[in-house]
Amino acid sequence: QVQLVESGGGLVQPGGSLRLSCAASGSIFSINAMGWYRQAPGKQRELVATITSGGSTNYADSVKGRFTISRDNAKNTVYLQMNSLKPEDTAVYYCNAGIVGRYSDYLPYWGQGTQVTVSS
User: Fold this and answer.
1) Closest CA to 17 of 5, 8, 27, 28
2) pLDDT value at 47 more than 90
3) DSSP of 40-52, one letter per residue?
């Protein structure tokens, strides 16, 4: 069984920073792309950033220059460093990963979500 566990959310003032972490655990053979998505109240879930196993990154235009995605393949962990946070960044942030399990085929997995609130 594979699971993703996120941490690092919270309340921060505008202009502040937060770092999200997402660790994959279980019977993992390999992890392909990993990413972060977010969903604000009343809105659809949207892509924030993705990173391939080789380290290539992709960002939503709204976060370019402020957010940085990275991963530690040895720890099966992906990070999202969020700087210069704005109230419109407030959302539940979800981790996503494409994982081949030791006893299963390729599947997309989602974390449980972590709340990020940007407010003064």
Assistant:
1) 8
2) yes
3) -TTS--EEEEEE-
Contact of 40 with 29, CB cutoff 8 Å: no
How far is the C-alpha of 79 from the C-alpha of 35, rounded, in Å?
A: 9
Catalogue the E-assigned strands of the chain.
2-7, 10-12, 18-26, 28-39, 46-51, 57-59, 67-72, 77-82, 91-101, 106-110, 114-118
Q: List pLDDT tens digits, range 68-82.
A: 999 999 999 999 999
Amino acid at 91: A
Q: Token pair 């290539």 is at which residue?
A: 56
Q: Angle at Cα 3 formed by Cα 32 and Cα 38, nearest 5°? A: 75
Cα within 13 Å of Cα(102), Cβ side: 6
Handedness of CA 23, 29, 35, 37 (dihedral sign): negative
